[in-house]
Amino acid sequence: MRRSERIVRLTKTLLEQPHRLLSLTEMAEKLESAKSSLSEDLAIIRDVLLKEGSGSLETQAGAAGGVKYVPGMPKQQSADFLMEMSRLLTDPDRILPGGYLYISDVLGRPDVLDRAGKIFADLFSASAVQYVLTVETKGIPLAISTARYLHVPTVVVRRDHRVTEGSAVSINYVSGSKRIQTMSLSRRSLPEQSRVLIVDDFMKAGGTAKAMIDMMKEFRADVVGVGVFMATSEPAEKMLKDYVSLLTLAEVDEVSKEIRVVPSNITK
């Protein structure tokens, strides 16, 4: 196998399995190449990734060691993506009765989910996340995309308990619309003392995210972060302080049909 072909195959394998430790021995056997040659190839790939700002390669020494790809997204690409989303979401036709903003179609686009998930994975890559937690339904695709780039499972909190999920923890909470709602999570879904990243599509007052944090106390889990696709600017005081939002919904005027969506400052 020519070196150019081997580098392409190596790169493809790494990019398709982010945050997964890959054995150098197994890759050397598969590519019918010496480990020393692979090490030189990986050095080239590492330099290109760092130069482009697209992530890094981490190596682990020893018999059980290997290499893994830690995804990253160049700051300019992240900034361009958020600006693109801001422009897309200011279409007056997106205004719903009550001053809500329709974003379901955007969160159904694979390219949007892929880039948003990669941004969240990049932001929380150093947090040793073991599970990505979300609540049904619209946040699920975004959570799955994030979990893919972190190479961890996705756990979905249900709005009500299902018999097919066995014993569960259920809690009542006050939503952003001041209604009392219920959420439930199967005991088998999440091992105790796990490190959890919460991902959701939208936040107003933060009631749902706060409820998920409270639920994690029942599992003795450590919530390492909260990421949302969009948060409203009002109310300014949320039910939780520490969270990351990619976009901020600053204004929705039903009368003038004006919408103002502001990108977050995570790329600065």
UniProtKB/TrEMBL annotation:
Domain Bacterial purine repressor N-terminal positions: 2-71
Key word NAD present: no
Keywords: DNA-binding, Transcription, Transcription regulation
InterPro entries, per the entry: PRTase-like (IPR029057), PRTase_dom (IPR000836), Pur/Pyrimidine_PRTase (IPR050118), PuR_N (IPR015265), PurR_Bsub (IPR010078), WH-like_DNA-bd_sf (IPR036388), WH_DNA-bd_sf (IPR036390)
Entries under Pfam families matching the protein: Pribosyltran, PuR_N
Domain Phosphoribosyltransferase: 114-250
Any Gene Ontology biological process: negative regulation of purine nucleobase metabolic process
Gene3D superfamilies linked: 3.40.50.2020, Winged helix-like DNA-binding domain superfamily/Winged helix DNA-binding domain (1.10.10.10)
MF GO annotations: DNA binding
Signal sequence range: none
Family per similarity comment: Belongs to the purine/pyrimidine phosphoribosyltransferase family. PurR subfamily.
Oligomer status and interactors: Homodimer.
Name the record gives this protein: Pur operon repressor
